[in-house]
Amino acid sequence: MSSLLSLVIFLPLIGAVALLFISNRDGERDGLIRQVALAASVVTFGATLALWRGFDPMGPEFQFVERRPWIPIYGIDYYIGIDGISLLLIVLTGFLTPLALLSSWGSVKKKIKEFSIFMLLLEAAMLGVFAALDLFLFYIFWDAMLIPMYFLIGIWGYDRRIYAAIKFILYTMAGSVLMLIAILGLAFVHSSATGNYTFDLLKLYELKLAPTTQMWFFLAFTLAFAIKVPLFPFHTWLPDAHVEAPTAGSVILAGVLLKMGTYGLVRFSFPLFPEAAMVFAPWLAGLAVIGIIYGALVAMVQPDMKKLVAYSSVSHLGFVVLGICAVNVQGVSGAVYQMLNHGVSTGALFMICGMLSDRRHTRLISEFGGLKSVVPKLTAAFMLITLSSIALPGLNGFVGEFLILLGAYRWDWRFATLAASGVILSAVYMLWMFQRVNYGVVTNPKNEHLPDMSTREWWMLGPTLVMAVVMGVVPNLFLRPMEPAVERMVQRVQAGQTRTVRAEPGAAGTQAFGPADPEARAPRP
Amino acid sequence: MDNLQAIMPMLIVTLAAAATMLAESFRLKDERMPLGGLGLIGLVGAAAASILLWNRNTTSFGVVQSDNFALFINFVLVAVGILTILLSSQVIDREELPAGEYYSLVLFSIAGMMLMAAATDLLLIFLALEVMSLAVYVLTGIRRTDAAGTEAAFKYFLLGAFSSAFFLYGVAFTYAIVHSTRLEAVALAVAGRSDVSGPLTWLAVGLLLVGFAFKVSAVPFHMWTPDAYEGAPTVVTGFMSTGVKAAAFAAFVRVFLSSFEPLRGEWVTVLSWIAVATMVVGTVVGVAQSNVKRMLAYSSIAHAGYLLVGIIAGNASGKSAILFYLLAYALTNVGAFGVTALLATRERPRGDLADFAGLWHSRPVMAALMTIFLLSLGGFPPTAGFVAKWYVFGAAVQEQLYGLAIIGVLTSVVSVFYYLRIVVLMYMTDSRAEYEPPRLTATGLATLGVAAATVFYLGVLPARVIELATRSIDTIF
Fold first, then answer.
1. B373 CA to chain A: closest CA distance, Å?
2. What are the tens digits of pLDDT across the range B312-327?
3. Which of A129, A298, B58, B391 is most buried, taking the most CB atoms under 10 A from its CB?
4. What is the DSSP code string of A274-305?
5. Chain A 168-197, CB below 8 Å of chain B: which residues?
6. Quick check: A222 and A182 in contact, CB under 8 A?
7. Can you tell me the ipTM of this complex?
8. If you average pLDDT over every residue of chain B, what do you get?
9. Is the per-residue pLDDT at B258 higher than 90?
10. Cβ(B284)–Cβ(B348) below 8 Å
11. pTM across the whole model
């Protein structure tokens, strides 16, 4: 099964091509198309699980490696492989795409074929981003992913969809083209040091760069990732894109796309440019903490449910960045764990927003109220996801945030303290929203006869509910495969940093880079 | 006979042009003749001749050198020519253009372009430039009843004549300095003498630079471009925006990167500013256009700027990047103009942006093809446009020209904005009821389909063509 990883990447593509050949001029085969697309994504998910099964956490750093020369003159290879971090993100992608497709069954009514094709293309590109070990290949997937997302927002979105779609693509591109220059520069530096071009990530890890070069390249890479995450103050595209995108688009956007930014920090920015990372980490962490608090405060005052969830993403992703900036095992594994959590809970929250807006064609919180007596099952699911999002112990969110705060505390207690206030704020805005939507008496007569969860909706929401509990109760299931990868990343950054004295505030941070305390790694709530 | 080898491709194209003209004169009034077929045969013949000449580096009369560099450009030109002819038949019927003249002018100008790419004497470059340009001027105004077309042709001709004069003065001054117009003699003289730098040299190099800058429509010599591109029949615009550019860049590279290479210090700063201005003006002004053809005209100005970055980098990858870029750009741009041309009707020949509204609903295949071409122009992977840009900017980064590369990528983000405007119109707005775009013919579909497939091929598996381009520059530099 040496080409299993390629299979995973290209399965959605095969599905998309198959859909091209189903003639559906007047929508007469919508049902078939939906099923084919769903089948393709479910099979892909199965294949990602097979990857997990075959993955050996104690094995070599990158597994399922495939390498074929692509543009030999410039040392570009089709080079893919996964470690524990990318494995989990690939599984997350495989997990969320079928759910997103299912969520569209109620809301997307026109041009189903094109919609499904774009969803599958998007999935292929996302999987490719997480699997690529060649920077050129990575960039191709990274940029190629913009196009299907652009169409998904622009065609099937809500009222201001065109504005949101263009803003999304221009913001993201503006960041990533500078990364392209940095990638080219990196390959050039490698060729002047060793005489040959390469875009091979592992070889570029070994490259010793001058501090100034590191600074510039780090900034170019990190700008691209910061826009994608999005880190305050680069977040302004996100509420627009999230709010205007169709439910399926929001689920993927929040669930997977944003993780590409934080994944980029873990895989590229920090290990490639460790010295620059050391200089900029406090700044990034500062922005992350601002994002945590700012996102939470802005979320609190949103009248629109979807926008509230969108701003909550800014806040939650701030935690992830903070964890990465701490560069210790707790922080980084917390960050990766939080990426998964956020994918599950925010994906689910967007699905719930979609379900409510399918029923009422509005997402304003004030339009709802007292739903508990009308749709008790939906409310129960909503409750569970809300609690998971605010990191209640026993649910997934807690593990991630706890580890991040632990890691951040070991690095610099000030960041940790400030970030911890975000935990409280998130409880405020989420619970307040939940309360206004579900409790009280039904004030709006339109809400009196809303249908409760349908079978399809159970199928799409159910898995996320299960995952929220599983990830909260047995975190080791997910922490174990990522642990060696996280340790390697931390060591790599550390090794690069030891060449210079750490001159930043919080000199205690130096000790925090020591071997991790195994007890602290896997807390059991 | 040996002497003729190197000019075989141009000769075949010229013969095909003459045959087309002749056939037209024998044509009865209402007889339908596949005149374009003659052109296709000629172009395929030229391609075959180019394949046979590959790696042989033949010379004719000491002034035409069919090295791999010229042959690569020949392949680009053959591709442009074949696509143009295939797309033209429908347009000629619709607009009642004189088929014989049309095809022979296309072929004559291709012959001129091929000659321009292969010429190794400044005077011959000038002759080839004129052969190419005169034919293109006429093609621009071939719709004689159309006032805009005539105006465009006249403007193009006047400004073109000016630039030719500049070029010719440049040749004259060069002759005054080195007593020869042969490129190799120029190179030897320039390389061997230290006193060569001086006002006279600046004048010579500057005038030649202006001549080339005009032909590749670099800022500030771009004023003719939007008008000429808008006024010409759309297929012709596609043809001249790619063919002329390929030929002019070939000669540009040959003159400036081989003969005047030792004087690099004198011209590289000026050219860098020209490149920056070209990229910025091409993208920023393009944003404000409401006509597809004008917009694509500004886009072609911007692309000239990216190509100039390749010349400024001047290293091996810069040179081969130019070749790859020209091929990618040719296929993409002929495709984009082709869709625009086939969408036009007698009543709406102009290509207003609004005509694209809701195209997805009425003509999904055309909308998809247009999207592919636009994405490639915008430089999105996995299309040819991305690899081309990556290649050019990679060459610039190699020479530490980070500033140019950064301006290049940032302006291409701006250009994405206007390419996507068309996509927004096609996919995200409703069509206007009074306008029913024409159906795509089988030939049109096949032609554009092949172009689009090649755009993807160059984007996904560019290795072979990159290798070819790399080998093409070995012979002359």
1. 13
2. 998 888 999 999 999 9
3. A129
4. HHHHHHHHHHHHHHHHHHHHHHHHHHHT-SBH
5. 169-170, 173-174, 177-178, 180-181, 184-185, 187-188, 191
6. no
7. 0.92
8. 90
9. no
10. no
11. 0.92
